[in-house]
Amino acid sequence: DWTMEAFVDRAVGEISGIQGRVLCGVSGGIDSTVAALLIHRAIGDRLHGVFIDNGLLRQDEGDEIEAIFRDNFHVNFTAVSAAERFLEGLRGVADPEAKRKAVGEEFVRVFSEFAERNGPFSWLAQGTLYPDVIESGVSKGPAAVIKSHHNVGGLPDWLDLKVLEPLRDLYKDEVREIARILGVPDRIVRRHPFPGPGLAVRIIGEVTPAKLRVARTASRIVEDVLLEAGVYDDVWQAYAAVGDDRAVGVVGDERRYGSIVMVRVVNSVDAMTADWTRLSHETLERISNRITNEIEDVTWVTYTISSKPPATIEPQ
Ligand code: XMP
């Protein structure tokens, strides 16, 4: 029986046989959310969900995740506020790969500290999907929900966690179906993918609190306008990036040397290639007007008309 209901029953049955406590890193994305809820259904309070607020998230994202896990699903759940540590690690870092490395290393440190203080844990749960498994060169197992191996994700050896990957035989659309079966709120099921290093890769040059504010607020406006226009679900990702370039504007009768915001909206099937979205002129106008009206520092709004390749989806 290959229905997703049957998958849920089978997975819950298999997971309920494991011994010890499970630590699941929750990002707010659909994959880690579904992995955590599936395991929670199987072992209840032996699951601990941890969400690391790195200060690089979308607007209100941290609060929404906490509400879903703690209030909706009553999962053992901790939100770790670590924004200052991540920003400190990013100070003076402008190179795209160096930024990714700084965020990744800080994540491992914060996660390991949490595991040490709140352990012992026997398992680390991850929302790995089948395409991730293929990409990493590990072959598909015999429909096994549980696969254990050591030392993934750059975590230190002393943690000695076995890995639990309940979604490793599934594709994204199957995970969406399971999310609906488990009662995951619609806004999470629909929400666009978001990169692990977060807004750090949507800010060109050094990540500063001022640029974070612009990227976060402008991105929320882009998402809101697409939702209002009824096209949010038709696109793969939609956001606004910002760098250090400035352009002269005029506000009232004052000259203002403000930021340039780059709006990026793309269509894609698998993120390997992507095409810029032909938004209507009315939608583009609404995005532009709202961004310049609502964010004081922004004078110019541009629309990114490069596809992947040769561009990538994220600017960094
Ligand atoms: P690019 O920019 O390479 O992105 O065209 C392809 C897709 O991957 C996402 N992305 C990431 N996701 N960690 C992630 O979890 C990352 O470091 C990362 N970098 C890019 C990006 O949002 C797009 O959907």
Automatic annotation (TrEMBL):
Positions of ATP binding: 27-33
Alphabetized UniProt keyword annotations: ATP-binding, Glutamine amidotransferase, GMP biosynthesis, Ligase, Nucleotide-binding, Purine biosynthesis
Enzyme class: ligase
Reactions catalysed, as given in the entry: XMP + L-glutamine + ATP + H2O = GMP + L-glutamate + AMP + diphosphate + 2 H(+)
GO molecular function: ATP binding; GMP synthase activity
Pathway: Purine metabolism; GMP biosynthesis; GMP from XMP (L-Gln route): step 1/1
Domain called GMPS ATP-PPase: residue spans: 2-191
EC identifiers of the protein: 6.3.5.2
One Gene Ontology term, aspect cellular component: cytosol
Top-level taxonomic group: Eukaryota
Biological role: Catalyzes the conversion of xanthine monophosphate (XMP) to GMP in the presence of glutamine and ATP through an adenyl-XMP intermediate.
Name of the protein: GMP synthase [glutamine-hydrolyzing]
Full-sequence range covered: 192 to 507 of 507
